[in-house]
Amino acid sequence: MNTITKELMTTTVAVSELCVHVGSTQLMGPVSFAVAPGETLVVMGETGAGKSLIAQAILGTLPEQLHSSGVIEVNGERVDNVAAHIRAASWGRQIAALPQEPWRALSPLKRSARHVRETYRYVAQHADPESSCARVFEALGLVGAEERLPSELSGGMAQRVAFAAATAGGAPILLADEPTKGLDNDRRARVVELLSEVPRQGGTLIAITHEVAVARALGGKLIVLKDGQVVEQGDTLSILAAPGHAYTQELIAADPSSWPQTASATPGKVLLEACELSVVRAGQNLIEGLNLSLRQGERVALLGPSGVGKTSLLDTLAGLHAPARGSVKRADGLGPRAVQKLYQDPPTAFAQHVSLDVSLRDAARLNDTPWSELEDLLSRLAVPLSLLARRPDAVSGGELQRVALARALSARPSVLLADEPTSRLDPITQARTLEMLAQIADARRLGVVLVTHDAHIAERWAHRCVSLS
Amino acid sequence: MPWVRSVLAILAGRSLQALIVALVVGIVSFIMMQALPGDAAYRIAAGRYGYDMMDAASADAVRLELGLDRPWWIQLRAWLGELASFDLGRSHVYGSSVIEKVATQLKYSLLLAGGAVIASLLIALPVGIAAGMRPGGTVDRISLVVSIFLRAIPAFALGIVLVLVFAVQLGFLPVAGFRGPQYLILPSLTLGLGLAAVSSRVVRDAVADAMSAEWRLFARTKGLTARRTIMSHVMRNAALPVVAYVGVQGAYLIEGVVIVETVFAWPGIGHALVHAIFGRDVAMVQGTALALGLIYVGLNLFIDLTCRLIDPRSS
Amino acid sequence: MNTVTPEVMPDARQLPSIKASRIAGLALFGVLGCAAVIGPDLVGHDPATQSLLDARQGPSAEHLLGTDHLGRDMAARLLSGARLSMGLALLSILSAGVPGALLGVLAARSGGWTDRLLTAFADAVLALPGLLLVLMLAAISPGSWWALYVGISLTLWVEYFRYTRQRARVVFAAPQVEASRMLGLGPWLILRRHLIPEIGPGLLTIAAFGAATAVTAVAALGFVSVGIRPPQAEWGVMMTELLPY
Predict the structure, then answer these.
(1) In terms of CA atoms, which chain C residue is nearest residue A416?
(2) CA-CA distance, A91 to B224, in Å (whole number)?
(3) 0.85 surpassed by complex ipTM
(4) Domain ranges, residue B206
(5) What confidence tens digit (pLDDT) does each residue in C57-81 have?
(6) Of A16, A45, B22, C118, which has the fewest CB atoms closer than 10 Å, so is most exposed?
């Protein structure tokens, strides 16, 4: 970092009355804030709230059809009225951006060390980029991954390689857009730790997230956005401790760590029983000697990090795969359709090219469920019937998952197997969806198995938790 | 070493393809032989010894030796056995050995194929890159229309039009045959334009994809200049589908060689194949078809290895 | 004959501009088709009747497009050539597309040896450039219809097969089909709801490319004098005949 600017500047990024428009429609704003060296700003809100637009406007990478108004200053210089190619000169040197999805940000044919080394060589112009690169790989715990291709890196590793590549140019300002997206608790904590280093070393961090836990860990200042509007702004920790706006309260309440504990169930007869179950997929022993029974009205969580075989176990319980060893027994009287599944990515669980109406009517007809019953169910799940005319890709993830739930219930199942049904949803939608699932499961005395990688959800939502590792 | 294994896998796959080519060509030639009118023994004897040197006795000897009165599957086995020992027989039209004949024609065909690929790259790369840098722009739209037009015209018609314009009307270039480098221009251009019509779109898509990729923007925001980003990230990623597509175009190239050689009376294998079919010269048909098929396999092998070199993921 | 592989085929999502051109192409194809079906009867001349006295005339009321070197009516010959090319193209689309797509579904559904055998057969056809195979098959019986037709169908079915098999494998393995099966949808409904809408547009594109390929192949083979023989009016043959003039 340039020592002269450090002494002269009291703020590194200052934004006033920033708005982003498409045509004459305003998507986001107005937003005003100023951050100084050593400070952190967290922008929080749901997907689609316009959080990313702030980062893109500051960096100068707004898509062509969008334009911004208001004043943006970086290191005391006004940049919003400057041509794009001139702003590009500050990239990597004054201001750096951490990508949302590191796998897509690292070009697929380059080995991981080269992504970092070329920044040292061409941007920071280090005399010895090799050793600078080796040092940072050591510091980030990436030793051994130098020659791996991006596709061979885990999510957490790819995020650290992207972090190293983005910051190697020495920029004191770091923009991080959803840096913990898709990471489990452990990996999330490591990324947060990495980001906290930035202000500690005198840099400026602007982090965008929808996760309350990440905001709490980063501290600093907070802006809460809803539909592009600022609903609350101030000190992060005091807002999170005493949120003033209803939306902020809702966001905080939706965080699984603040969910209420589920009362214990009064389980009925056994529906599904796994005995000494072993699951092998693609020659790999995933699960061995598991005993599990699921009773009526019981909610069981299967908890474990990604890649541990949760989905394969679920498919074996569903009878879709034969177990390698052991057995899965269904209670007498449970037919082939008594077990239904909910999927992680709801758009892929529906026929892509026909309307939801067709899919639902097929399911209702084949299972002798009157259509009116399904309509009742949909209205209880707060799905407007007008949505059914659409195709699955034209409906939001939360609504689609509720349609999927209604479809599964049309088969009058006794058991629901849910494979991370809310991991792709916003916290508020996630909380609402799981709450509805719990209500319906209780009302119909269903046995539910929920696969999740979130320990809080497993603890708070389920009656019983099985940890896999 | 994983890369050794992947190279061996490529070699094995393409060897199998070469084997299939030989088998298909052999079987079809055999059927062609059987379907010809007249006595097969006389024809083969003529094929072996030349028309002047054969008589009824040599035909009977051939009949006895090859067992032409035996059931067809035994004859087929014998036919393929000769093929397996690289005995392609003699052309009954030229009297000379097929292998010699094909060997002299081969260099002309390779010259034409090489010229066509170079011509297509000279056209497709600049046009495709310019179009891909600005998708939806003027270059993109014009090149789309031109490429659809060129793709719709059969190669022989394009060749005739080029001859009429450049050779007959303007008199810049020779009409047909081969007596010097200037004779190469029109045939290569005919074939090259047909290839470039599609490959310029592939280049355009590859470049447009790479330019709009998230990793391209990330390379920029981490501080690389636009130029460096294109040189070190965009081009390599864009090259992959383009090189792979040259392999797909191998079929078009071989087919084009046959047609274009005929249009321009080019002394290559394709022209010889058409002549052999016309003259019912089965041994030549088999030899030339086999040579063209093997060139195709060789081209595919070369492309596979190049892709393997560019893309370390394929190991 | 140009083999169109599905991996690089410009589909609607990749190349939005192709969509408009596809419509234009279909329209052109339709006009040509109409001309081919009813045209020869409208012109009122026999395409093969020679009249050396009228040779090489320019366009006139009697001969709309003039006559060729043997005094045959050009309009009649062009249109009759169109009928031939289009007829062959449509026929080969049917006889290549229907079995190709059905076998693709079969291979994807049954897997195992059925799949391996069918794929090996398709690979064997692809081992040679398509036109080379057609050329050799046509050479077995030069000038005859059936050799040309069988050769073209035999090379074209592979596209449908490979495309259908690849897509069907993905669809059959997707959660959408698993969910439908668990809900009790039978094989026919799975095909109707999941597979047909998924592969339909792609198959139509392959068919359009295939028709163009067949027409060009017939013309090219006629041109090198291996396919349709004179005096039958075929476009490629006509170009060869007229080349000296």
Answers:
(1) C182
(2) 8
(3) no
(4) 99-278
(5) 666 656 555 666 665 666 666 666 6
(6) A16
